[in-house]
Every structure is written in structure tokens, then in C-alpha cells.
Specification:
By secondary structure, the chain is an alpha/beta fold. The chain has 2 domains: 167 residues, Rossmann fold (3-Layer(aba) Sandwich), CATH 3.40.50; 162 residues, 3-Layer(aba) Sandwich (Rossmann fold), CATH 3.40.50.2000. It is 38% helix and 18% strand. The protein contains 13 helices and 12 strands. The strands form 2 sheets. A 7-stranded parallel β-sheet has the order 3-2-1-4-5-6-7, with helices on both faces. It has a 5-stranded parallel β-sheet with strand order 10-9-8-11-12, sandwiched between helices. Strand 11, helix 10 and strand 12 form a beta-alpha-beta unit.
């Protein structure tokens, strides 16, 4: 099968990771091309290009948004794939001008948006709640498939070794979070709750970067906070941080699914989360109640309770999130939808 993925964003985060892992895994058995914007191919740690397999053909577009979209459409017309799979807004706009050229699929990384998705052939939801907004008859060409993680992933070293590498103390209780630092992730609430809880011998580590980072830097500008909170910034080795944590915390205001939840589960971490959409979907696996969004006092109380409970390493049923099985589900969906248009 000839498959083209379109990712015209510039920096690597959860949605880009989904697209890259999907393309890399599909390339083991299919002819896969990924269309990237030139800025996603830059020589920097949070770019996209260097994460793609050598088995994936990469084509590059350039320039401002609408010119890049035009170039991507032209490439797809030349390639004549069986399937073109869009990721995020610009990718969906590419496919809107290609009716009848191939099967046009998009993943709902955030939610259904009429202006992006209504004119496409088929949609993949990552969580059940997303399906409710899809109108008929497009809903008949939609499916919900869980996100995935590498269930064979192991710790890149012992916790003691990792903490030594990262400058963390062996006997600290580390509350950690990982991901893009944006307003929707509620990091400032997490930081305030952690300082309010004032847990002895505990530290909060926030790994990631984004537009909301200046707000966090202001909050930890005093000496006391800076000793208890580490703003680690973007990391090209996030697994090193994840496996050094004792607890994973999500304070998200909005989280459609949360690939990072699967990463934390694979690492065996206790998970404390606010009531985002993704957390509510996965909560039965977490084994603890969720916390109200934007409630500093409730989050601080939950952190104190978790510190007192000291749950230690957790075991989660990860088989349903195995990357090979879930990627095969995507390919099966392509084939199902292709059979409807032939």
C-alpha cells in the first residue's frame, strides 16, 4: 500500500510523535512517504525530520502556510498514493483540495472541527468522546482507535544512575511532568499546588518547553521555590527523566488522550491527574480519583495524600496499547474505507 502522511508543523510534540511512529511502523511493510515543512527539518533537538526511519521517504515543502499547502497537494497528485493521512490543521487543509485522488484520512489529535474535517473521506478518533461531534454520514466512515506506546520499552538505566546524570538526589520524592508547556496544560496550577503542599524532601520537575514557560519562571524566581522546583526545559531524552520520577502528575485543562499517560504507565509510575478528557478515559487504569481542573487546593491535597501513601512502582495492562497491534488497526481501517470507494 502507498501511504502519504502530511505533517506541516515545525516542532515535535505528542501529535507529531503519533504521526512519526505511525509512519515508521507502517514503513516496515508499506511504501510510506512523509511530507514535512522545511522548518520541521531543521538541525535542532525538537525538529521532526531526524526522528523518521530511513525506510520512510521524506519530501519537503517550504514557505508561508498557503504556499506550503499548495506544494503538498501537488506532491500528492504526483505520488498518487492509496491513502493520504493528515495530522493537524494544515495537513487537513492539504487534503481538502484532493477529492477523488486517494482516500483522505485525518486523525483527530484534538477534536472534530468542521472547517478541517468535514470534507475528508474518513476520520480516526483517539478517544470515544471525540466521536460525538462527528456528523452523519462522516461518522459512518470514522473509527476510534487508542493511542499506542512501545510496550517493549525498558528503563535506560537504574533510577539511581539516571538521577545522578540529571542532577537529582537519590532520596528525593520526585513529582514529575513531561510535555509541551502551554496554557492548556495548567503547569502554573501544578507548580502552585506543589509549593502549597510543601512536602518534605520532595521536588517538582517540569520537562518541556513552550509559550507558558515565562509564567513558570516568574513563579519560581524566589530562592525557596527554585530549590524545590526544576524547570528542565526541552529534552531530547525524555525517557531518562520519566524513569527518574516517583510520581507522574498531569494538571492539564485540556488533554484529548495523552500519549504521555501511556509513557508514564509503561514506566510503572503512579499517576495523579486532573479531569481532562484523556484522563477521564484512562482513569480506570490509574487506580485513583482524578482532581478538579484548576483547583490548587485539591491538587495540593492529592499530592500530600500520594506522598503519604508511597505507592511505589505500579503495574498496568499495556497490551491494548501495543504499537504493532494499534498500527495494524489503522491499516485495517484504511483497507476497509478503500473498499467502500472502489
Amino acid at each position: 500500500m502507498k501511504i502519504v502522511h502530511i505533517i506541516l508543523t515545525h516542532s515535535f510534540a505528542g501529535s507529531e510523535r503519533y504521526a512519526v511512529e505511525l509512519a515508521n511502523t507502517q514503513a516496515e511493510q508499506h511504501q510510506v512517504t512523509v511530507i514535512l515543512h522545511k522548518r520541521g527539518c531543521e538541525q535542532r533537538a525538537n525538529a521532526i525530520r531526524h526522528r523518521l526511519s530511513d525506510k520512510v521517504q521524506v519530501l519537503v515543502v517550504d514557505g508561508w502556510k498557503f504556499f506550503a499547502i499548495w506544494q503538498a497537494r501537488k506532491l500528492i497528485r504526483t505520488l498518487k498514493p492509496d491513502v493520504a493521512h493528515a495530522h493537524l490543521s494544515a495537513g487537513c487543509r492539504v487534503l481538502q483540495g484532493l477529492k477523488g485522488v486517494c482516500l483522505r484520512v485525518a486523525t483527530l489529535h484534538i477534536c472534530y472541527k468542521k472547517q478541517q474535517h468535514a470534507k475528508l473521506d474518513a476520520l480516526i478518533a483517539i478517544a470515544p468522546w471525540q466521536l460525538d461531534a462527528i456528523p452523519e454520514p462522516l461518522k459512518n466512515h470514522s473509527i476510534q482507535l487508542d493511542n499506542w506506546t512501545n510496550t517493549k520499552l525498558t528503563a535506560p538505566g537504574s533510577k539511581k544512575e539516571l538521577r545522578q546524570q540529571l542532577g537529582l538526589l537519590e532520596n528525593e520524592l520526585i513529582f514529575g511532568t513531561l510535555g509541551r508547556v502551554e496554557q492548556t496544560k495548567g503547569h502554573e496550577v501544578l507548580l502552585q499546588a506543589f509549593l502549597k503542599a510543601n512536602i518534605p524532601n520532595a521536588r517538582l520537575v517540569i520537562v518541556g518547553d513552550g509559550k507558558a514557560m515565562p509564567v513558570l519562571k516568574k513563579l519560581v524566581s524566589d530562592q525557596l521555590a527554585s530549590k524545590k522546583v526544576l524547570l528542565a526545559g526541552f529534552s531530547s531524552t525524555p525517557q531518562h527523566w520519566l524513569y527518574s520520577f516517583d510520581v507522574f502528575v498531569s494538571s492539564a485543562r485540556y488533554e484529548p488522550f495523552g500519549l504521555v499517560f501511556l509513557e508514564a504507565m509503561q514506566a510503572g509510575l503512579p499517576i495523579l491527574a486532573t479531569k481532562s478528557q484523556g484522563a477521564e478515559y484512562l482513569q480506570p487504569l490509574f487506580g485513583r480519583d482524578l482532581v478538579a481542573i484548576d483547583d490548587v487546593d485539591a491538587l495540593a491535597k492529592a499530592m500530600l495524600k500520594l506522598a503519604a501513601d508511597q505507592p511505589g512502582q505500579m503495574s498496568y495492562p499495556m497490551q491494548r496499547f501495543d504499537i504493532q497491534a494499534r498500527v495494524q488497526d489503522v491499516v485495517d481501517f484504511y483497507q476497509q474505507e478503500l473498499s467502500k470507494i472502489k
